[in-house]
Amino acid sequence: MPRPVPQHKNNLTRDEFPAGIGYRPAAPRVLCFGDSWMQYSPHPTDLNKQLARVFRRSLFLREGLGGRDRETWHAALPRIGRHIRSYGFTAILLSHGGNDVVGPEMHALLKRADQPAAAMPLLWPAPPPVVQAHVRQDVFAQVLSQIFADIDLVLDYRDVFSPQTRVFAHTYDYAIPDGRPFRLGPLPLAGPWMQPAMAVAQVAEGERASLARWLVDSYAAALIAHAATRPHFDIVDSRGTLGGAVDWENEIHPVASGFERIVRTHWVPALEGVLR
């Protein structure tokens, strides 16, 4: 039996979504799936919540999870496939890769300058010296390949069950490796992520921001290139929207006004011809 929800509510859990369709069967349907940029609990500030406020006539199915990694992505995929088959979404919004590139998995990407790197052709033209010294480029290439394989699994469900659905993913922004953790009130609950990994790799403090920026740019370039290989798959490029530390609540999450600026500047123009 569908769970009763207020008829005006449009940002819904999977238990609430059938009731929302019952109230508004003709409304555009949007699946939000991914990491903490889609579900930054308990803060009312993430992409999903901001977009639901803008597109009040659309129904949003909330499937974000803070700290989502590849394991939890794969665990959710059968359910995501059922959602796509059952609801025929107008749009699917994905947030994936941040935890692997500048999050908890960053230790695996970095090395000390005196540690050897795998012999392989450089995949990125003229990486700066800090990257050549400290990034395991073979591991980074593998990570990107895994991220895109994860996204392709969602796109494959879309192609089979709802080929008209538009899919959108995003590029994050230039995170700042300043050692600030995620806090709930005064209590640190997670992180920091980048600063400890860079400290272990002995990256000079003055080079840490440029290294983080290179990782974000390289991820974005690869994601944009990958999207060109799949139909109805668009990238929302939000790089360069935020400024200094004042726009970031911690190393990898914007403050509320930062999320809002990203949504208004980049997501709304991308979606306004698709949703209402």
Q: What gyration radius follows from the Cα positions, in whole Å?
A: 19 Å
Strand content: 5-15%
What is the CA-CA span between the terminal residues?
28 Å
**Which residues sit in consecutive blocks of at least 5 with pLDDT less than 50?**
none
User: Overall pLDDT, averaged?
Assistant: 92
Write the H/E string, N to C: EHEHEHEHHHEEEHHEH
SS-based structural class? alpha/beta
Helical proportion?
Answer: 40-55%
The geometry reads as globular
List how many beta strands DSSP finds.
8
Major beta sheet, strand line-up: 1-3-2-4-5-8
- Counting DSSP H or I runs of 4 or more residues, the number of helices is 9
Task: Please describe the biggest sheet, giving its number of strands, its sense, and whether it closes into a barrel.
Answer: 6 strands, parallel
Topology:
Elements: E1 11-12, H1 17-23, E2 29-34, H2 47-54, E3 59-64, H3 70-87, E4 91-95, H4 98-101, H5 129-134, H6 137-161, E5 166-170, E6 182-184, E7 187-190, H7 194-200, H8 208-227, E8 233-236, H9 256-271
Parallel strand pairs: 1-3, 2-3, 2-4, 4-5, 5-8
Antiparallel strand pairs: 6-7
Task: Provide tags for this entry.
alpha/beta; 276 residues; 13% strand; 6-stranded parallel beta sheet; single chain; two-stranded antiparallel sheet
Structural account:
The chain has 276 residues and is an alpha/beta fold. 40% of the residues lie in helices and 13% in strands. The chain contains nine helices and eight strands. It has a six-stranded parallel β-sheet with strand order 1-3-2-4-5-8, sandwiched between helices. A two-stranded antiparallel sheet has the order 6-7. Helix 2 links the parallel strand 2 and strand 3. Helix 3 packs parallel to helix 6. The longest helix is centred in the middle third of the chain and has 25 residues.
